[in-house]
Structures are given as C-alpha cells and as structure tokens.
Amino acid sequence: MSQPYVVRYVGGPLDGRVDSLPSTPDDPKQTVTYVHLHGGPKIVHIYELSYAVEYGCEYRLRAEEAEPDVIG
Fold first, then answer.
1. Per-residue pLDDT, 14
2. Which of 6, 30, 44, 60 lies in disulfide reach of 55, CB 3.0 to 4.6 Å?
3. What sign results for the dihedral spanned by CA atoms 45, 13, 41, 64?
4. Cα–Cα distance between 32 and 11 in angstroms, integer?
5. Where are the domains of the chain?
6. Which residue has the higher pLDDT, 37 or 1?
7. In the chain, which ranges are E strands?
C-alpha cells in the first residue's frame, strides 16, 4: 500500500488545511489562488509551492507586496 501525497497550506485563511492526493502529481501548480468572497470587497490570497521532503509539498502564503508610493 502506497502512502498518499500530502499537500499542506501555511498562512492566511487556508492555514492548517491538508489535502491528500492518491499519488504524486506529474506537474504540481506553482501557485494557488484563494479568493474570499463575502459582503465586502473581494480578498485574494496567493500561495506559492514549496516542497517538504517528509510528506509532499506545501503552499506558503505569498508575502504582500508593498504599496507603490503615491505622488501628488
């Protein structure tokens, strides 16, 4: 019996989520986009792929980029 391929999420609203796949994906996604819809504005979180040898891979929340300076 083979072990499932485990995908973990670190940070943001998906922190602690664990998905199990039956096998290793041939070409895992480099990023995962999570869109939170609610009564207010749409909130987008981007997770970047990071490998974890002991269990598969994990997606880590991308650090927010600094807002550009506004001149004016």
1. 95
2. 6
3. negative
4. 13
5. 5-61
6. 37
7. 5-10, 18-21, 31-36, 43-52, 56-61
CA atoms within 13 A on the CB side of 49: 12
Bigger pLDDT: 60 or 28? 60
pLDDT in tens, 20-39: 888 878 888 899 999 988 88
The candidate with the shortest Cα–Cα distance to 52, out of 6, 18, 20, 16, is 6
What size, in residues, is the chain? 72
**Which residues touch 34 (CB under 8 Å, ≥6 apart)?**
12, 13, 14, 44, 45, 46, 47
Q: Do the beta carbons of residue 67 and residue 49 sit within 8 Å?
A: no
**With 50 as the cut, is the pLDDT of residue 70 above it?**
no
Q: Which two tokens stand for residue 45?
A: 């979180």
Residue 53 φ/ψ region, left for φ over 0, alpha for ψ in the -120 to 50 degree band, beta for the rest: alpha
